[in-house]
Structures are given as C-alpha cells and as structure tokens.
Amino acid sequence: MSSSLVPPAFLFHYRFPVARNDALSASSFDAVNLASPLPDLSTLSTQPSFATVRINWNLQGLAVSIFVNRQKKALLPRSSSSKLLADECVRLWIDTRNTRNVHRATRYCQMIEIFPFGSTHKSSKPVARQAFIPNAREDAPQHAGLEIPIHLEAQEDSYLTTVWLSSELLHGFDPQQQSDISFYYEVEDIFSGLQTPFVGPEFPYEYDPSLWLTLDLVN
Question: In 9-22, which positions are buried (b, 16+ CB within 10 angstroms) versus exposed (e)?
C-alpha cells in the first residue's frame, strides 16, 4: 500500500497523562477544576476541531467534560425534532484494560452516550446512558438502574457538559492494578459537524479498541 494512502494519524500511537483529582465525586465534579485538555490532533486528519475534552480520575471513577464551541450561533429555538436531537450527541468509549491487540470490544469496553439537550422530543433534560457496542465480542455489564450524573452549561454559541462515570459503572476499573485505559470520543453537533480525536467514521472505532487512545492515570 502506498504511504500516501495511510492516514498520518496511524503513524503514531497516542498516550496521554490524565491527572488524579480526589476532590471529584458523583456529587461534586466541577468542569472548571479539571486539568488540561487532551491534545488537539486535528492537524493529523481532516476532522474539524470545535470541541475540547478534559478528563480527571480518582479511585471512585472518571470525570469527563466536553466543551463545544459552535461554528455558528444557534439563533433559532431548539427544534423538537428527534432527528436534530439525535444529531447533538457525545459518545465516549472506554476500555478499562487497555487491550491493544483485539479489534472487537470486550466486556471491559464501555460506550456512553451523552445527549446534552435531551434524547427525545418530550424532554430537553440532559441525559447520559450506557449503550451496547455494535459487533462486540462480549457485552460489558449493563447497569440499567444506575444514573450517570451530568451537568450542562449552555450559551448561545457554545455548551459545556460534564459527566461522572463511577467505578461501579466502568467494569474492570481498577487504577491501582491497571493504571492505563483506552479512550475514544465522538462529538456530533448540528452546527459544527463531527469531531473525533483523529480517525473518522471511515474506520470502525465504534467497536475496535485498537484504534483508541491510551490514557495514563497518573497520581
């Protein structure tokens, strides 16, 4: 294969440190206090760059914040159309064992869907939920009764949403024994388009953990 056909993003394996913050909990996960954002890798791909992702951790779980700076102002009232609501979504993928040699998700892989402005036309309340990963080798345990705490701060041309992902939710999450995890995200916005860390939907990142970033959970 010609090197020109290989996306530049594939020339590297990405590993980033994530800071510990013991002040975070399900009742206190302020995005303002989260550490530096994940690096912007948009220059290595054709993906747009309009979202900033921050992550902190402690033994109780992960706090993840996503700031979306829209490319145009949302001048019209938010539509009740379920199509538009579905297009305003953040998806997170996490592998608590950082398995790099498989191409289909295992039981340690989670997908979290975040709908900042609601997931149906009946409610505009922000919601986050577990979802099954398509084509997974095994499904992670599902916690239907476990609420995922979520905060939303919305402006005319931007929004900031933050979720708390507890260790109970994240099957296999054990930073003392496994200090690195895999992570990927997808931000879909009706004004700005689609953003991922590097490779886009032409690659099967939605179920292939070998394509995900590695995060070092540092003390």
Answer: beeeebebebbebe
- Per-residue confidence band for 88, with pLDDT thresholds at 50, 70 and 90: confident
Strands 180-189 and 89-95 come out as antiparallel
Q: What does the radius of gyration of the chain's CA atoms come to, in whole angstroms? A: 17
Task: Kindly state the greatest CA–CA separation across the chain.
Answer: 52
**Interacting residues of 121 by C-beta distance below 8 A, sequence separation 6+:** 80, 81, 82, 85
What is the C-alpha separation between 162 and 55, in angstroms, rounded?
10
Tokens of 191: 């004004």
pLDDT at 123 over 90: no
* Inter-CA distances, 9 with 67, 162, 188, 209, Å: 23, 27, 20, 15
Residue 194's closest CA among 73, 55, 90? Answer: 90
Q: What is the pLDDT of residues 173-216, one digit of tens each?
A: 999 999 999 999 999 998 888 999 988 888 999 999 999 999 99
Q: Bridge partners of 67?
A: 52, 160
How is residue 179 written in tokens?
A: 């200090």
The enclosing H or E element of 84 equals helix 82-86
Alpha carbons 55 and 156: distance in angstroms, whole number: 25
Q: Find out whether 33 and 175 touch, Cβ atoms under 8 Å.
A: no
Residues 6+ apart with CB under 8 A from 142: 130, 132
